[in-house]
Amino acid sequence: MKKSILLIAAVCMVMQVGATEYSYVWSEQFPNYKQQNPSSDFTTGDGLFRFTSDKANGVSGPQFNEDSKAGLLLRLYADNTLRIESLSGAQITAITFVIGGNGHYSLAQLTPSKGAMDEPYLGKDATDSFKEYRFFWKGETTDVTFTVGHECEYGIDCYDQGKTGVAGTCMTKQIIITTAETQDLDELSEDDPSVRKVIYNGKVYLLRPGKTYTLTGQEIQ
User: pTM for this one?
Assistant: First the structure.
């Protein structure tokens, strides 16, 4: 009976999850990008995310380069890949790719290895003064890879002017990442202070010395 009470109490103690947003503007993150080697692979300054780009099946390889309108752009070309990893273990739930400057001309679709892309925003910035397209990804993972489309799909060249056969690109000036942050779980101190709650692979378990239970009270052998 005592065990059942503890398990019911654990179920009632709902784990709280909050969303945290991280914004990375490349011209602010990498003012000395020309000294990086390789220039297109990096860990964010806060140490939370690793970006790894690859030429993959493309003709041209990824690079950082200045844009007269949008500042520093991370330029990905047709069939290049970009891997984004959460180094803290927090689940990435949303990513926004902010496209600026020359990135508007031959913008291609992105294909993610996990999760899904939403409808893109093909408009202007908040001041309504210049073009600022956005791609939106949603999912739940600590590691996702995006592949740039072979041909232009949303860019001015193909979407507005109807040109065909234009090689695709994805040139971001900023990336915004949202994660689901889990709070530390408190010990169950009432009646049995040795019982603890832990998270493993996204699930909550109860630990007692030498035994592990699910929140429904089932012992895991």
Answer: 0.76
